[in-house]
Design goal:
Largest sheet: 7 strands, parallel
Number of strands: 13
CATH topology of one domain: Rossmann fold
Order of helices and strands: EHEHEHEHEEHEEHEEHEHEHEHH
Structural class: alpha/beta
């Protein structure tokens, strides 16, 4: 059985004042799956957008769509001198680069180059709900004290604290955006897994995972950017934590296939990385997320999200066949 989200009273905090994106200059460190979509949505809303990537093909793809791209590697000290020119006139920063052992490499590069924009108004740091560690399946929100158990989660928490210190020093609003598992078109999902030969559904009593459709994650980031409110921590997750097999079962129904065979967790023989993922269990509340001005989840659960992905796939196939 999947636990349902319980209702809590609405927030009594004052509603942040909305600031239009038009006329602002957003700089994105790491235009990947989610942040690249944010870049495109911000541009469509009237913002000027610049971004970095290490991938020339990704750069060319986004340049074609009007994003000002820079091939940049935070580890390449010879490129740091160019940061000040890249960030000329930037009003907003979104950081989507994985942390290093000592924290955020983008912040280290900016600090070393003395390239932090003087007129910075908003910073968004993409972190992870992994900073909470294992919660025994309990419902938690942003007031839960972090207890990271992996090297990546510990590094993200260091990065969160470093960006908080920088934002306070500069008087910039900061959103620490703790993402659950991202899914969506263009990334392997439960539909793809159900199409894979030999797929099995791993079962572990009481285990659930949290997720959010990439469109909702991007929408939440833009809503936060549009209504900055000092230091804010936001869980980016949908309404329904669920067992991994529930997604596979729903994908099977959508595809008209039988359910994937079950295998107990202890007999699944998962590699160490995957086993570590299964070692943490929590149910993430998203009340703060849904209280963002102008924001609503398009895909409140995996059911709507997977159905939309499949509908897009079939529409694209029909168009290609015409």
């Amino acid at each position: 059985m999947t636990a349902e989200l319980t209702v809590i009273p609405p927030s009594t905090e004052p509603t942040p004042t909305a600031r239009p994106l038009a006329g602002r200059h957003l700089f994105v460190f790491g235009a990947g799956f989610c942040a690249g979509l944010v870049a495109l949505r911000a541009q469509a809303a009237g913002a000027r957008v610049s971004a970095t990537t290490r991938d020339p093909l990704r750069a060319a793809e986004l340049i074609e769509q009007g994003i000002g791209m820079h091939l940049f590697d935070t580890a390449a000290s010879g490129r740091r001198a160019a940061l000040a020119d890249m960030l000329e006139g930037v009003t907003d920063l979104l950081i989507s680069i994985p942390p290093g052992e000592g924290g955020c490499p983008a912040l280290s590069a900016l600090t070393a180059a003395g390239a932090l924009p003087s007129g910075l108004g908003w910073i968004g740091y993409l972190s992870s709900t992994g900073v909470y560690g294992d919660c025994g399946g309990a419902w938690i929100d942003e007031t839960r004290s972090p207890a990271p158990q992996t090297a990546d989660a510990r590094a993200r928490l260091i990065a969160e604290r470093d960006w908080a210190a920088l934002a306070a020093e500069r008087g910039a609003a900061l959103d620490i955006l703790r993402l659950s598992g991202l899914y969506g078109p263009g990334r392997r999902n439960a539909l793809d897994r159900m199409r894979s030969p030999g797929i099995q559904a791993v079962l572990r009593h009481g285990q659930v995972f949290n997720r959010i459709h990439v469109e909702d994650a991007a929408g939440a980031i833009l809503a936060a950017m549009s209504a900055p409110a000092g230091l804010r921590r936001l869980n980016l997750t949908d309404d329904l934590p669920a067992p991994a097999h529930a997604l596979l079962d729903h994908a099977a129904r959508l595809l008209g296939r039988p359910p994937a065979p079950r295998v107990p967790f202890d007999a699944a023989g998962l590699p160490p990385g995957a086993a570590a993922f299964w070692a943490e269990n929590r149910r993430i509340r998203n009340d703060r997320l849904k209280a963002l001005p102008g924001f609503a989840l398009r895909y409140p659960t995996y059911r709507e999200g997977l159905a939309a992905i499949l509908a897009d796939e079939r529409a694209s196939a029909t168009t290609a066949a015409e």
